[in-house]
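Here is a typical protein record:
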Amino acid sequence: MSLLTHVLVCLFGMGSWVAINGMWVELPLIVPEIPEGWYLPSYLTVLIQMANIGPLFITLMHRFRPGVLDERSVIYSIVGLGIIATFLLAFFWKHTVTMGGTLHSVPLLLLSLLLSVVDCTSSVTFLPFMMRLCPQYLTTYFVGEGLSGLVPALVALIQGVGVVHCQNSTLAEAVNETADISLVESGILEAIYQPAKFSVQVFFIFLSVMMVICLVAFLILNYHPAVARQRMNDLYFSDLANGEREHALSLHDKAPEQKPMISPLNVTMREPRSSFGKGTYSKPEVLFIFVILAWVNALTNAVLPSVQSYSCLPYGNMAYHLAATMAAVANPVACFIAMFMPIRSLNLMGLLTVIGSGFGAYIMAMAVLSPCPLLVHSTSGTALIVLTWILFVLSLSYVKVIIGLILRDEGHSALVWCGAVVQLGSMLGALSMFPLVNVYGLFKSGDACNTKCPL
């Protein structure tokens, strides 16, 4: 294996969701400066689901016009669009337009939609592209995809996003003489957000640079001679139709002098169990794999992230930042574990899904109990919620990698469907949580400084 190829694949994978992940972690600095306020996360959720038109188009093209669409061209287009959109965000994110008599952050929302299209479409193009390389590089890609959430989170921590301390409101007025006197009450604390070490503009330029790095890595993966030697076989790069390509690959895999020395019994045993991929798995097993894939991505990409603040903030800002950062670390750690322990067992996959869902159930319960969850005044409660988030992400991230490895063995079209189901699960999770959070108000947030819970 080539170290250069591993590094390039990791950098390529980092470009998959770095833009939208960066947008989410920067919200505490963006929200106070725009008219939408804290409704922006709801708008982002809707925009991301609208952006699934990109994966839908790619999937339909592979289904009805196989072999016509080359994912390399699509990747060049979406990564280039991501570079332009993040760069423009750096200069226009605060600009507003008057519509219907009210101000709206039209440039921010429009560019966020474009970035959502970029990142959603990456799910059905980046993974199929990995078929061009040897199987061991797929795990490295998942490591990079995990880092697409970790790296922006670490940069945001360095920036000082959302760092708050509580101060007596009378002291706050002494510092700020323009403060509303009605806020000055004895015993009332006010949340004071510390200024960031660098601006939102610099952060978006950083995201644009990350997308440029992704594009450069992709170019080298396509054209560098050292990488060419790591390709599984060069016939994949031909312009054959999908059926002809799979036939050519199967012929290429046979040794030149191979003779049919297989007994009729072995022929029977090797008959495909289904029409999916290479026929390794039966139809119920394929359905099981895709249901698990949709469920896991619904939980990790939509359901639990939408309530992370409700589950963690009652324990303090440190708990929230630790949970967010360490959960982001757990994702690539799970990929590293899968790199050395790629256990393709459906039973293990199901067991880990149940365990991870159990951790998710505890997180959801604490979010429902917000602003006074269990052990809210205890250090053990803080440690428990952070540990639960880490184990939740660790277990289900491992499941996602194993499913990716299983489907990679089944061929190019299986990875296309893998990306489509990932987006479907994420969409269903987001659509189910949107009304619960934003319409029915099932979850309640407390004041970071003044919420009092019974001991």
In short: The chain has 20 helices and four strands. The longest helix spans residues 379-410.
